Amino acid sequence: MERFNENSEMASNEKQRIVDVLLHEAAYLHCTIPHLKQNMVAWTRLRDEALLTAGEQSFTTDSRFQISLKPSEVDWVLTIRRAERSDSGCYLCEVNTEPRSTVYAVYLNVVETGNIKPLTSVPAKRTTNLMANMIGNEVLLNCTITVDSDGNAVNDEVEWLRDGKVIDFRNTKKYVSKVKRNSRTIIHTLRILSASNEDDGSYSCKMVDAPDSTHTLHVNTS
Prior knowledge:
By secondary structure, this protein is an all-beta fold.
């Protein structure tokens, strides 16, 4: 299975996207794919791109990592026994769908006793900036989200809109999306293929707990 790249598509995870667990307790990261029963599923750790499991086979020498499948829910559960602080971070569940693989992100936060924050805690403040560039006959829209506090466990999915309507990424001949992350910055890129004046419009990237950012695009093909 290919590692997460621009041919991969981020998706929503029906289970928890943020998992808080006490130090030295077991952590359970869920990846539920009820409509994709025949597809291969792999878990990777984002910070070092380490492949942890593929299907029911383990690819790590760390015996704390175990994979189990709940057939009734088609839920691939990555279990981390005796979680350490160093296990905190983003884990990716990648499903080999066509034409692009689908990736579910789960964020693990390992904390000391009594330090688990309630779900009602105030989210980190974020700013959003949308820039456009044209390379040949392609347009690149870069949506940069900056987090002003620890960016370990945040919901960093965005919704792309054109003239107020959600863009359909199933149209792979027209749109390609990818994402890059570090501790404080998240960059979502929308690539518009074979751009023409028919692609003119008001493009927006929308994210939870961050202001929307909009760019009016005019494609000059002359």
